[in-house]
């Protein structure tokens, strides 16, 4: 009897609205390659992953500039209006191939600095978990809760908080049910783990590297470039 398969879904249907440009983040140049090339190539290094599904605007000419998108393990499918819809499209794209107990790793295309070590750590530590979990880091800044008038209301205990990253890895059947349930109830999950929590299930936290940043603003490109340079010296990619 074979074990569960591992699938990856990398939603990439977003626009560049928060990035301050008409060109989506995944098509921004980072070093010698576009962001999407970095993210996909790092996932392709994980031999355990059977296929990588990319919900996106498949008509974009920029995919022709991304060699990894032409890899036999990568499949572009039409994305949705919001991240959750794109992830759902990715899940439905493999429903005739995936078993309920298979694992799905959902990764942000805008996190090109993810390392093989962190992905393998996530896979290894969750291998026997019934639900799944996410990469996350401890919070080092002091947190504040504020009112509508922008005045500080409280200072919560930061040791109780974690900053969520991706990949987030969950059982195929459970993740599909979680997303469909929230959407049918008119709710919009902020990430996959929030949908899992909506079903009353508990996801496990796997401590990740702090350099697994998400590119959101233009200045993040400079930070990501420096991180990649350092990672190359560590040979941890």
The level of helicity is: 25-40%
From the 3D structure, determine the CATH topology.
Answer: Spore Coat Polysaccharide Biosynthesis Protein SpsA, Chain A
The top level CATH class name: Alpha Beta
Q: Which parts are unreliable, with pLDDT below 50 for 5 consecutive residues or more? A: none
Largest sheet: 7 strands, mixed
Task: Explain what you see.
With 237 residues, the chain is of the alpha/beta class. The protein has one domain (6-133, 164-234): Spore Coat Polysaccharide Biosynthesis Protein SpsA, Chain A, CATH 3.90.550.10. The protein is 28% helix and 22% strand. It is built from six helices and eleven strands. The protein has helices at residues 35-44, 83-93, 116-125, 172-184, 192-198, 219-234, and strands spanning 6-9, 29-30, 33-34, 49-56, 74-78, 103-106, 132-138, 145-146, 152-154, 162-171, 204-207. Strands 5-4-1-6-10-7-11 form a seven-stranded mixed β-sheet, with helices on both faces. A two-stranded antiparallel ribbon has the order 2-3. A two-stranded antiparallel ribbon has the order 8-9. A hairpin with a 5-residue loop joins strand 8 (145-146) and strand 9. Helix 4 (172-184) packs across helix 5.
């Amino acid at each position: 009897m074979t074990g569960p398969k591992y699938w990856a879904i990398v939603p990439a249907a977003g626009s560049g609205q928060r990035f301050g440009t008409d060109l989506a983040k995944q098509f921004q140049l980072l070093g010698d390659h576009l962001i999407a090339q970095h993210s996909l190539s790092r996932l392709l290094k994980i031999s355990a992953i059977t296929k990588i599904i990319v919900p996106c605007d498949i008509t974009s000419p920029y995919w022709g500039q991304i060699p990894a998108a032409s890899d036999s393990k990568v499949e572009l499918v039409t994305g949705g209006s919001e991240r959750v819809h794109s992830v759902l499209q990715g899940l439905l794209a493999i429903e005739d191939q995936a078993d309920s107990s298979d694992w799905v790793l959902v990764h942000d295309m805008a996190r090109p600095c993810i390392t093989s070590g962190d992905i393998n750590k996530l896979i290894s530590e969750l291998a026997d978990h019934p639900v799944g979990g996410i990469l996350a880091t401890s919070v080092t800044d002091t947190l504040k809760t504020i009112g509508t008038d922008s005045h500080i209301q409280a200072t919560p205990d930061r040791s109780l908080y974690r900053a969520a990253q991706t990949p987030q890895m969950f059982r195929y059947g459970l993740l599909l049910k979680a997303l469909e349930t929230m959407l049918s109830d008119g709710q919009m999950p902020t990430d996959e783990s929030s949908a899992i929590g909506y079903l009353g299930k508990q996801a496990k936290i796997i401590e990740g590297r702090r350099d697994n940043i998400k590119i959101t603003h233009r200045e993040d490109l400079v930070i990501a470039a420096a991180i990649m340079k350092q990672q190359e010296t560590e040979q941890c990619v």
